[in-house]
Amino acid sequence: MIGFVLMGILLFLYLFISTKNSQDYEKQKKHYDDSVKLVRAHQDSIARLQDTAKNKVYVVADTTGVHKAMVGSEQLLTVRNNVMTIVFTNKGGQPKEVELVKFQSYDKTPVKVLNPASENHFSYAINAGNQSAQIADLFFNAGKLTKNADGSQTVEFSLPASGGESLVHQFTIRPDDYMIDWNVKVENTSQLFAGGNLNFNWHYEPMRAQQTASYEKRQTNISYYQDNNFDYISRKTEADFNKSVQWLAVSQQFFNTTLVAKNNFSSGSVKWARELSDSSNLLAKVDAGFQSKLPSGNAAVIPFQVYYGPNNYTVLKNEPVEGMAKIIDLGRGFYSFVRPINVYLVMPVFDFFKKFIASYGIVIMLLTIVIRVVTSPLVYSSYLSGAKMKALRPEIDEMKKRVGDDQQRASMEQMKLFREAGVNPLGGCIPALLQIPIFFALYSFFNSTIELRNQSFLWAKDLSAFDSILSYGFNIPLYGDHVSLFGLLASATNFIISLYGMSMTTPDQNNPAMKYMPYIMPIMFLFFFNNLPSALTWYYTVSNIITLALQFVIQNYIIDHDKILAKLQANRNKPKSKPKWQERFEQMQESQKKLDQMKNKK
């Protein structure tokens, strides 16, 4: 009973934390809907201002220095390597569109981690005579592409200037790398940057890549590496950085864009909000601002890197930027203790099998078998403890008839019986509790493993998402708007395990909680499993089938109940010494019993 209660508490705690994003999402959505009503009242005036701005002719009195860059026309330059296609623009001298050629979006087109349909730019302020200008608004000279001997490609944008200053954006794209090197080369820094300070801004709007936009929005978060420590924000909408920042990443479910400052930003902040409109393909809006001191001297090179790519553990681990592999949620925050299980057990076994087997459903099945072999000593210990408890059940029932309604005496007699027989009443639930970290680890693993994306198995079209066999057009709270067949199978096999386990231990039918426990847990799991990735519910279906087979074999062919009874009898005949805690507990019970007797006499 203690085991079931503890497992229930842990599971509900996990559900509460993992669904908090959904609750915040709905709360923000309501606020969004209310705000839209106010915004619409001003749309007409805003539209008029926009029309005026489009027709405005920008007149520049001084055409020397960087003022030439304030007017111009946009020119695009396309560069390709083996993993992505990058479209650069001379407006701001930066990437405008990044397409990942090895990944398809929900609409079967290549995934665009930098999408021209949304607003995205890097920018920083420079001096332009007696005013300040943002780089994102300036027109550089047309980009120049150079192919290097090592297979890499270099793109350069130079800012037109004639006052002795020079500003160049240089990008290096390697053949098989998602990481782009970006060097900002400056001549005459004192003229371009006030006080030698760099005030850098990044505005980014990731777009939908998954079938279920609402779920992908909830998975979107901000990760960063500050003062050599990883952290992230998911529910909060802002963070301030008062120590050096190495990088900041905007991560959606399976892809991320990361800005790396190779010389570190000295301070900064980020504000972001998820897009709450159900009809929008926009996931979030992110605004980050950073500050740093430029190197002393008349000339400077400010080195950055930008990662546009998948949340692939191997890829991120091999990038020469510390901590980027932690962008992938393999266990973080309260559940960071499960990350080593994923990194050192689950992932190596998964990677080993996928080298030889094309079907990821079969890979998951083999992974399940390996995990069950690893945890088999705990399972056997649990079953053995249950067999011992079953062997003692007739004596416990006889003892309860003998003591009647005296619960304190029944408790003392039962503890004495356990001590004489050498039985640990918690021996069955402790092994089960020790397996809970594996449950949490696999939840994180299957929810963030990009290899499962768009991989089909049986009726599941995508193992990284739920397998829907029926969509009924309306939402049932906590359950969803669909029926997951793997979720049903996992819950059904859980129910059979509960019934079989209770029948083998012959529970006390006078205890209502124990009587209904086989029904409570599977129903709870049914709601939980319905929205999980089908890879995870397939894993639990296979795991439960293995559990049923093991229970049957162990109980009927391995555990000898006659030997257990003989051993229990032999343990009774051995001299026993009570643990100190048990002596104190029995003394407390005896004192309480005497007090109750005195009260009854009065």
Verbal overview:
The protein is α+β, with helices and mostly antiparallel strands. 43% of the residues lie in helices and 25% in strands. The chain contains 17 helices and 21 strands. It has helices at residues 2-18, 20-40, 43-55, 189-192, 213-219, 313-318, 339-354, 360-374, 376-403, 407-421, 429-434, 436-448, 485-505, 512-529, 534-558, 561-573, 580-601, and strands spanning 76-80, 84-89, 94-104, 110-114, 121-128, 131-134, 144-147, 153-158, 166-173, 179-187, 197-204, 221-226, 229-233, 238-241, 245-251, 255-265, 267-274, 284-293, 299-310, 468-476, 480-484. Strands 7-8-9-10-19-16-15-12-13 form a nine-stranded antiparallel β-sheet, with no helix packed on it. A hairpin with a 7-residue loop joins strand 8 and strand 9. The chain is elongated and about 105 Å long. The two termini are 36 Å apart. Mean pLDDT is 79; it is low at 53-64.
